[in-house]
Amino acid sequence: MHKKIVKWLTWLLTIICSIIFLLASLGKFRLEGNMYDNFIRWNYNGLTLICVGIIELIGAILLLIPRFRKYGIVLLISIMLGAVFTHFRNFEELGFPLLPMGLIIILIVVHFLNQKLLTNA
Question: What is the DSSP letter of 31?
Fold first, then answer.
């Protein structure tokens, strides 16, 4: 692929993922509402909700810094694997784990595109 296209695609996917995780993290800092109710239903507590929110926020920020992007990807994939496990463990409908699985795939694509950019720099 042409280097400009790879760079453009990397940044586009990175910004989309960062926005998704930023918004998701901000929703976890309120200890009320649907997200809180879901965590309680899944046998997690409010502290777990806040920790997940902090990790998502840190991951979203790290995604935007090319040198640290891989660390953000590792953090966010770890959180998304936990989300997939939680949805399956609690017998959620198939649609619930599809979003974290899709985000995992996008993060893996971002990682490989980022590696391509870093090796060609």
Answer: S
pTM equals 0.89
CA distances from 57 to 3, 17, 33, 85 (A): 29, 11, 19, 21
Q: Cα 120 to chain center, whole Å?
A: 26
Distances (CA, A) of 78 to 47, 67, 102: 18, 19, 14
Contacts of 34 by beta carbon, 8 Å cutoff, 6+ apart: none
d(C-alpha 110, C-alpha 102), whole Å: 12
Closest by CA to 63, choosing from 101, 113, 120, 121, is: 113
- DSSP state letter for 32: S
- Could you report the per-residue pLDDT of 25-47, keeping only the tens digit for each? 998 887 778 888 889 989 998 89
Residue 10 has a CB neighbour count (10 Å cut-off) of 21
